[in-house]
Design brief:
Helix content is 27%, strand content 30%. The radius of gyration is 23 Å and the shape is elongated. This is CBS domain-containing protein.
Length: 212
């Protein structure tokens, strides 16, 4: 799964030019309502970094900055970017406490941003929030072939998604199994019994309604 499938395109992104003064940048942040936006150069082609509202305020108050001063010394996170062709999961390691990441194309030009909301969308999709269905939280003792055993036990129903938690734990792993909501309650009970017969423990069952 690539970043290029899950980011906010440039035409939908609010940004400021590196030539902005601190007043221009502050006014624009107030207007947009964001606490931080990208700073671009060369007519919006090159990513320069982030400008934060809090840093502009500190500059005005603590350093007695002037309205006409350049924003250049206040730009942060110049390396907060990722490429369109990078794996989407790389964002988990990169974004962390940042509000977003800039996305660059293969020519290293600014293409857009990836946000925490984009990440949540992917996670929601993994949990079946878009397609709906039954979410089974399954606990198992960690052992070789655990996933294979689980899939084999439910091979006669349609699996919409599978997500594993506690990876690396030496003892217990939780597996989130998304099964189509078209499965009858009777069939669902049989699936649960098959899992428990294989020494899996179904700790919870949630019915997720399909998003309209």
């Amino acid at each position: 799964m690539k970043v290029r499938y899950h980011y906010v395109p440039k035409e939908d992104v609010k940004y400021c030019d590196e030539g902005f003064t601190v007043k221009q940048a502050y006014d624009y942040l107030k207007e947009t309502g964001f606490r931080s936006i990208p700073v671009l150069s060369e007519g919006g082609k090159q990513f320069v970094g982030f400008i934060y509202k809090v840093h502009l305020l500190e500059y005005f108050v603590d350093e007695k900055g002037q309205d006409s001063d350049s924003i250049m010394p206040l730009i942060k996170n110049q390396d907060a970017y990722i490429f369109e062709e990078d794996s989407f999961f790389k964002t988990f390691l990169t974004i962390r406490r940042l509000p977003f990441l800039a996305v660059l194309n293969e020519e290293k030009e600014f293409s857009g941003i990836i946000t925490h909301s984009n990440i949540m969308d992917v996670l929601e999709d993994s949990f079946g929030m878009k397609t709906g269905g039954y979410l089974l939280t399954v606990g198992t003792k960690e052992h070789k072939g655990a996933i294979k055993d689980l899939v084999t036990a439910v091979k006669d129903v349609n699996i919409e998604g599978l997500l594993t938690l506690d990876n690396g734990d030496q003892y217990i792993r939780r597996i989130i199994l998304n099964i189509s909501s078209e499965v009858s309650e009777d069939k669902l009970k049989k699936v649960i019994k098959k899992l428990e017969d294989k020494e899996f423990r179904v700790t919870s069952v949630d019915l997720i309604k399909k998003q309209s």
